[in-house]
Design a protein that fits this description.
The protein is mainly α. Helix content is about 40%, strand content about 0%. It contains three helices and no strands.
Length: about 100
């Protein structure tokens, strides 16, 4: 719900329509404690808005199901290239 209130004309560092679609498809619910979903939405919103308010680059969101992050080998150039592809034009200052 909170993402649907984001202005559509901002550079968020992630695809707002894609994240709206992912949230609708996943439809995650965690009611322990009772306000856990609301807390998570609030903290995610802060992570998205606070950097912009202070002149930093936008937050880049990476979907956990998009890549097997636990097997990430940062020394492998193929992994770095794959990460660059995932980030696309959101990558600001380049990666080594």
């Amino acid at each position: 719900m909170s993402l649907s209130l984001y202005p559509k004309d901002r550079d968020w560092g992630f695809s707002l329509p894609r994240w709206l679609d992912l949230c609708a498809k996943i439809d995650a619910v965690d009611d322990t404690p009772i306000d856990r979903d609301e807390r998570r939405a609030w903290y995610d919103t802060l992570r998205d808005l606070v950097p912009l308010a202070h002149g930093f680059n936008p937050t880049v969101r990476l979907y956990a199901g998009e890549f097997d992050w636990c097997k990430l080998d940062t020394g492998a150039s193929t992994v770095r290239n794959h990460l660059k592809e995932l980030l696309g034009d959101r990558l600001r200052d380049g990666m080594p």
